[in-house]
Amino acid sequence: MNPLELARARPGEAFTVTFDGRPLTVLPGQTAAAALWAAGVTAWRSTRGTGRPRGVFCGIGVCFDCLVTVNGRANQRACLVPLQPGDEIRTQEGTGRDHE
Fold first, then answer.
1. Which of 8, 28, 49, 78 has a beta carbon 3.0–4.6 Å from 12's, enabling a disulfide?
2. What is d(CA 33, CA 59) in angstroms, rounded to the nearest whole number?
3. pTM (2 decimals)?
4. How confident is the prediction for the chain on average, in pLDDT?
5. Measured between alpha carbons, how far is 49 from 59 in angstroms, rounded to an integer?
């Protein structure tokens, strides 16, 4: 069953953000991590040094595995950042250089 149907949720109007230039449809209240997962993206950062892929680990803002760059601001925890229409999310490499 669809979770929205199960909870009888009535979310507001969907809107668009971008991830590395690709448009994503987002529901009001979704965090960057939730929107990326819903779009099938499970990794959006690479570690410094080895470049290993990372995404959500704890999901509650305690760790730093889910870091992304949002609207030009690096080191944002994707699990904590609520999205707004037009937000630009970018893959982050290492300590804060966004992916080109």
1. 28
2. 8
3. 0.81
4. 87
5. 24
- 3-state class of 36 per DSSP? helix
Residue range 78-98: mean pLDDT, rounded: 87
| pLDDT, position 47 | 81
- Residue 79 corresponds to which tokens in the numbers above? 């699990």
97, two tokens:
């250089």
pLDDT of residue 97: 56
> Do 32 and 55 meet the contact criterion of CB atoms below 8 Å apart?
no
| Parallel/antiparallel/unpaired status of strands 88-90 and 15-19 | parallel
Question: What beta strand segments (E) does 1-100 contain?
Answer: 15-19, 22-26, 45-46, 53-54, 67-70, 73-77, 88-90, 92-93, 97-98
Give the burial string for 1-35 (b: 16+ CB within 10 Å, else e): eeeeeeeeeeeeeebebebeeeebebbeebbbbbb
